[in-house]
Amino acid sequence: MDISRFKADHQVIAKGIADLRLLVQQGLAQNADRIVEHLHQLSAKIKLHLNAEDAVLYPALMRQSASAPAETARQFQSEMGDLAKVYGAFTQKWAYGKLIVDNQDAFKADANTVFQALHERVRRENQELYPLAEQV
Question: Measured between alpha carbons, how far is 15 from 29 in angstroms, rounded to an integer?
């Protein structure tokens, strides 16, 4: 199975998250509007990627006769299938720079939770799921 698109998406998403973290580290108050803009730009890529995995990659692997790809895909979808919705709720909640400035600690906590979950999904897919998909 050709998963080069999914792998390329992971690289783009990782860079986007790193860029976002840099903006946060440089200061929420002075970068709040840029953070919101960056979140929305990154949002499109993340949502498309997660939805493509959930709608295309996981089901394709679940249809395999080999048990390892099918079971791993089921497990991933079960554990992480709603991440696109969680990310969407996060970006809607923090849609304005003023909200971030006025609630910096809450934004940092929410961002840390969402991006840690996203990072974990990408890491596990790269290490566990994608090698199986490439063998199919």
Answer: 22
Place of tokens 């890491």: 123
| pTM of the predicted structure, to 2 decimals | 0.83
Contact 14, 83 (CB under 8 A): no
Q: What are the tens digits of pLDDT across the range 73-83?
A: 888 888 776 78
27: left (phi over 0), alpha (psi -120 to 50) or beta: left
| Nearest-angstrom CA–CA distance, 57 and 17 | 23
Give per-residue pLDDT as tens, 4-30. Answer: 999 999 999 999 999 999 999 999 999
Are the beta carbons of 7 and 57 closer than 8 angstroms? no
Query: In 1-136, which ranges are E strands?
Result: none
Q: What CA dihedral angle connects 17, 23, 24 and 30, to 10 degrees?
A: -150
Environment class of residue 32 by beta-carbon count within 10 Å: exposed (0-12), middle (13-18) or buried (19+)?
buried
